[in-house]
């Protein structure tokens, strides 16, 4: 999805729709098709270092978490959502 420009230093995006479309052109579900597999791979890598470690994850702000139904082992995974005032996050304005 990324490559380097002719100068060999500047990254350029060569697949603008990488996270939104499958190779067949159908639309992806970011949480299920990208985020969930990432969390699972990350958890597995951490567990290889030390099996008693835990991994805390949260949903993308303003989104539901991925659906874990039928997922691989999730022992040591902790769902740790936070509440964000998205207006402040995206506008950088604090409302008192």
SSE class: alpha+beta
Distance between the termini: 41 Å
Overall radius of gyration: 18 Å
Per DSSP E runs of 2 or more residues, the count of β-strands stands at 4
Number of helices: 2
Largest sheet: 2 strands, antiparallel
Beta percentage is 5-15%
Trace the largest sheet across and list its strands.
1-2
Mean pLDDT: 84
Total domain units: 1
What do these coordinates show?
Strand 1 (about 1-5) and strand 2 form a beta hairpin. The mean pLDDT is about 85. This protein starts with a strand and ends in a 5-residue tail after the last helix. It has helices spanning about 30-50, 85-90, and strands at about 1-5, 10-15, 55, 75-80. It is built from two helices and four strands. It is of the alpha+beta class. It is about 25% helix and about 10% strand. It is extended and about 45 Å long. The strands form two sheets. The protein has a two-stranded antiparallel sheet. It has a two-stranded parallel sheet with strand order 3-4. It has one domain (about 1-90).
